[in-house]
Each structure stands twice: as C-alpha cells, then as structure tokens.
Request: fold
Amino acid sequence: MHIDTYYKKFWAEALKKFKKGQFEYDRLIDDRNDHRYGLTILIRPSDVIKQAINQLLMHLKALEPDQYYYPCTDMHVTVLSVISCYNGFTRASFNRDDYTHVVKQSLKNIHPFKLHFQGITASPAGILAQGYPDGMLNLMRKNLRTFFKKSGLETSFDTRYAIVAAHSTIMRFKHPLNNPEKFIQVLKEYRHHEFGCMHVSEIELVFNDWYQRKEKGFTIATIELHEEHPK
Reply:
C-alpha cells in the first residue's frame, strides 16, 4: 500500500468513529504499575519539526487539556520495534553490544535521507503526524529484519503490525472529550499542514517504555548514517 493511501485510510476510518463518539482511551498512561518495556530503533524529528508539531498540540491542549500530548523530547518515528514492550523485559534482559552490532551491520549501505512531515492522520486512540520518507527507509527496515533474523537474538518485530509508514504519534486519548466537534474541526484544519522536512543522518537504538517517555528509558546507541562517496 502506498504510504499516502495508508494515511488516508487511517484518517477516514478514524473520522467515522470520532463522529460517533467512538474514541479509544488509554487507561495505562498514568499507571505507575505499568512496566512494559522493549527495544526500538527510531528517528528523532528535528527541533524545527518538533516545534511545528508542538504548535498544533498547544492548540489541541487548549481545547482538551486532559488528553496525553507527547512532549518534544519524546517525539519519534519508529523505524522498527525490535522487541515490542511487555512486562518482564528489563535492562538485564539483553546484551547491549549484541543488539548494537546487528544494527550497525544492517546500516552499512544505508545513507542519509530526507523525511518530510506534512499533515496529520488519526486512529481511534490518538493523533499522528504524517511522515513521508524516500526509499532509503524501506531498505533500512528490510536490512534490519534480515540481519536480526540471522542473528538469533530475541526479537518480536511485526507481531503487532508490520511497520510501513513513517508517522509520529503525537497525542493519545485518556478521557472523554469536552467538545469533540470543535476538536475534530481543528484536526481538519491541520489535515494537510506543513510541518517541515529534515535530513535523517542518524538513528537511535533505545530501551523504552510503551510511550517512549525519555525519563523511563535510555538510548543504547546512536548510529550515524554515512554519505555515499562517488567511486
């Protein structure tokens, strides 16, 4: 499925549910006993893009202050969920060097690429900023899947769904909305909003909780992508 078709499909399905009041509320965001952790390979949006997205979130927060809005520190694009978060996975559950080595091997022929953020889409559970990468991201994911399968290391990627897009989840629903009609109207205003374009030159391997909260996890390795030199 073409990435824009993917986003349009999500938007259409979510909008139908929103209009019926069928929002999905995350009851675990504030649960101190939520100990789901995993490993993720991700891209951090540039500061310019984070600030542009945050302007939207400030607008939404003024309308609906009781929802969960991602702080700039936690915004990310998932390249691959190496180990999907689950209870019992801890810092002692894996060897950092082993996982870092596989990631580095996977990225040897991956070069910096552009990632364009434009517009938003949605799911019944939250709001997502739409990312449009070039073909290098697909090659990166293919390499990572191949090398990790060969490695014999614990993985669980694609068990929830196979990642094909480059979105960033920026808001999650926690409670019923005060004014869903106005909220939906603001979403429509930002449906095709320009957030900016960035040059992806590095990726991170992180130990993370379900929501990628900075204070709950840590970066295992930051790996630079190297420019291709002409022969």
Remarks:
- The CA atoms of residues 116 and 132 lie 5 Å apart.
- The chain has one domain: 3-224.
- The chain has five helices and nine strands.
